[in-house]
Every structure is written in structure tokens, then in C-alpha cells.
């Protein structure tokens, strides 16, 4: 599947619907999503392929790409909102809601599948009580799929808060999660 094609604005173009004045106003917005989108758009627009770095910047700043950010980005790049939304929803990396306190990514690519990743996925869904792309009801863990962590020789693999773990069994995964929760508790105390 190839990514959706969002035609970038020509370099120097202010965007038919969103000129510099609209962007200046958005930068002063009291809405964090609008402000972050305007700041990122100001930095990147006019450069080829500006949409992805803008989306990365917004997510880095806010932890997600809220719906309110989309119109500002679309206007700045002279794209439709649907085009921007299409790119956001195409890439699993981008999220439209803030993640939980921990992010658990379970590899679902071929090598891990062959070594029991599906069983691991069933176990983690049951343990956390939520499906992929969702967060546990207490906001502790967001569960995401990932497609290869570069640990194919030590499948199945997961990543918790950016740290990879190899040869993961359901028991090992429980221990990894327990440890992370414990550390979070200790850090709070
Ligand atoms: S397929 Fe899972 S780490 Fe490569």
C-alpha cells in the first residue's frame, strides 16, 4: 500500500486559502493545537514534502495530532483537510489522541508472526483489556502494532517506551509491563 498523495504547495506559495496573515493569527491562537500547527507550518511550508515534518513537529509537541490542528495545516499547505487527514491516518506512527503513560508496540511482521506474535498479541489484548490503537481505561498503556523492530533473529519482539525486548513470551511480557508500572509508581512516590 502506498501512502496517500498530498500534493505539496509550490515553493513560495502562501496557499490560496491560507495566506501569511491567517498563519500569523493562528500562531497567536489560544488553542494549543492551532498554535502548534501554525508554528510548524511556518517553519516548514515552502519546502518540498513539508507535510510530514509538520505532522512530526505537532506530534512531538502535543503528543498527538488533534483534529483542531488539521485545518491550519491544510490551509498553510493549500491542501484539503481530507488530504491531511488521509496522511495522518495512513501512518501508524501518527496518533490523533494522546498516548497513555506507557506505549507498548508489539511487532506483527512476518518473522515475529512465525514465532508466536499472534499468541502474544492475544495475550496482551486480554491482559490490558484493550485492542491495538487504543489505551487502557486507566490511561496507563497504549497498545500499538509495529512492523519490524529489526530484531527478526530474536522474534517475537516488542518495544516498550522506546526500549526493544526480544524473544518475548507472554510471561516475559507480563514481567516487562509489571516492571514499568513499578518504576512509574516509585518515581511518583
Ligand atoms: S519481524 Fe518482528 S522484529 Fe522483524
UniProtKB/TrEMBL annotation:
Binds 1 [2Fe-2S] cluster. Residues 1-24 are annotated as: Disordered. Its cofactor is [2Fe-2S] cluster. Residues 1-11 have a biased composition (Pro residues). Transmembrane segments: none annotated. Keywords: 2Fe-2S, Iron, Iron-sulfur, Metal-binding. Belongs to the complex I 24 kDa subunit family. This is Formate dehydrogenase subunit gamma. It comes from Bordetella genomosp. 4.
